[in-house]
Amino acid sequence: MLMTGRQGLALIRMGLGVLMLVSAMDKLGKGWLRNGEAMTQTIQQNLPKTEGFYKPFLEGTVLPHATMYSQLVAVGELVSGVSLLLGLFTRVGAVVTMWLMLNYMAMKGTMFHQYLNGQTYSERVYFVVGLACALAGAGLALGLDRTLGRWIARVPVLNWLAGYPVRVSRVTQAIETTGQPIPLPRREGPIRRAA
Is residue 188 in a domain? Predict the structure, then answer.
């Protein structure tokens, strides 16, 4: 039995989900939900090599509110890991993963520099896999997005978040097939104006 491209991407998606969950569990074990000490240490270690545009944000916003940001990071990794592993609202999990990786790369100074640094190379890979999952609807194979498809299809926003293609409106379909929009129905009788 041959594996389709979407099934292969689903396996990669699940692997990324496991890696995000492992990272989240590590942060939970180190107390990232209780206080911001671990995050403060991480930021202070990386501050000398942080990207220039990102350093004021870390110093002025994140460090003074380290507890809140450490909780956001831990919960974000947990949510994205569960989403990607189960294939449930895969685009949400993929976008959260991409956002976290962009922030990690900016903090570590690897967004524009140190491209082949072995310690941070994985963040670029995670970002690219997250992008592929977001664009290809990786939860539609081996995931709950497909299993819950009938229910999800009824709600347009959920439909998109699950990775289903966006449905084209009747007006757009008419313009594409005939070159003319659907005519609006005409009202019979005089138009009454509100007093």
Answer: no
pLDDT digits (tens, 9 = 90+) for 16-74: 999 999 999 999 999 999 999 999 999 999 999 899 999 999 999 999 999 999 999 99
Q: Is residue 186 part of a domain?
A: no
What total of structural domains would you count in the chain? 1
Distances (CA, A) of 14 to 2, 166, 195: 19, 24, 62
Please give the residue range of the domain that contains residue 82.
5-161
Q: At what angle do helices 37-46 and 90-108 cross, to 10 degrees?
A: 50
Hey, what are 178's tokens?
Answer: 């005939």
The pTM is what?
A: 0.79
Alpha-carbon distance 63 to 42, whole Å? 11
Quick check: is 173 in a domain?
no
Instruction: Please count the residues of the chain.
Output: 195
Residues 6+ apart with CB under 8 A from 6: 136, 137, 138, 140, 141
